[in-house]
Design brief:
298 residues, signal, elongated, Swp1, 5-stranded antiparallel beta sheet, disordered N terminus, alpha+beta, 5-stranded mixed beta sheet, transferase, single chain
């Protein structure tokens, strides 16, 4: 069985080689007393992520992952388009990308020094919640080194594989405060009901009274002004056939004022428009006839 597996891996490596070479990979911790872990050279056959997870004692722990990226065999000879470390819980689709810091090697310009820092305090609360609540759900860090297919030579492949797992100790689970709350949308909710208020059918009574009073006062002052300055003389009122246009002219003005007053007292807009459609043409026709035929001072 082991021989068959070895032959399969060897055949895969010969038939399809990676476009990138990762050397001198190393995992270190914020706690300097903790020994760093040397991973050596990594490729598509790396299965370190399947081994025992790294134990985390404090929430302020920072895990560093560094390696040398050899681009000598890559077609593009440039930094890959995707160079990131996915940290989270893949089974629950909770992963965040950690951006790499890339520096040029002083010895070889085709070799890049790549480093990642996983600060546990900056991880989403949802990731920490599931890692603290379940012993069998570790935080996984997966490496992505990839280019577009157009930038890959024939038989070259990209890299994507888990590098290490992080798991909190029992003591850390007791001291770390879990403040995450699952969104309510994941559970059953009560049906939301909202009753929209009915739109007002009448104008405000106070506003209506003020408007009606203003209309009456303006008309009174207007007529008083006409009488005082002899603009109206009751001795020269139209009579006979001229009295009908005169009466229609002033009657239409008064009717328009009444229509507007009724609107502010609660008449609907459509009823108001219908009334104006009747009153306005009558006033326009009779008023024009009155003003054309009667040229004397009233």
């Amino acid at each position: 069985m082991k021989l068959l597996k070895a032959i399969t891996v060897l055949t895969t490596a010969l038939g399809c080689a990676s476009a990138f070479i990762i050397k001198d990979a190393k995992i270190s911790f914020k706690d300097e007393t903790r020994e760093a872990i040397e991973l050596g050279q990594l490729d598509e056959t790396f299965i370190k992520g399947e081994y025992q997870p790294l134990l985390i004692k404090e929430i302020d722990e920072v895990v560093s992952f560094k390696f040398k990226l050899d681009l000598s065999k890559s077609k593009s000879k440039e930094i890959p388009q995707q160079l990131s470390l996915l940290v989270g819980i893949a089974d629950k689709d909770l992963e965040v990308p950690i951006v790499a810091k890339v520096k040029d090697s002083s010895k070889n310009n085709k070799v890049k020094l790549v480093s990642f820092k996983v600060d546990l305090q900056t991880l989403p609360k949802s990731v920490l919640h599931y890692a603290l609540a379940n012993d069998d759900v570790p935080i996984t860090a997966s490496l992505i080194v990839a280019n577009d297919k157009k930038q890959l030579a024939r038989k070259e492949t990209n890299l994507y594989f888990p590098v290490f797992h992080l798991q909190f100790t029992d003591l850390a689970k007791k001291t770390i405060v879990d403040t995450f709350e699952e969104p309510l949308r994941y559970g059953k909710q009560e049906e939301l009901a909202h009753t929209f208020p009915q739109p007002p059918t009448t104008a405000d009574p106070t506003l209506s009274l003020l408007f009606a009073g203003a209309v009456v006062m303006v008309n009174m002052f207007l007529y008083m002004y006409w009488i005082n300055f002899s603009a109206i003389s009751f001795e020269n009122f139209p009579s006979g056939k001229d009295f009908i246009p005169f009466l229609g002219f002033f009657g239409s003005i008064i009717s328009c004022e009444i229509v507007f007053a009724l609107y502010y007292f609660g008449t609907g807009i459509f009823e108001t428009v219908n009334c104006l459609a009747i009153v306005a043409p009558v006033g326009l026709i009779l008023g024009s006839k009155f003003l054309r035929n009667y040229t004397q001072k009233i």
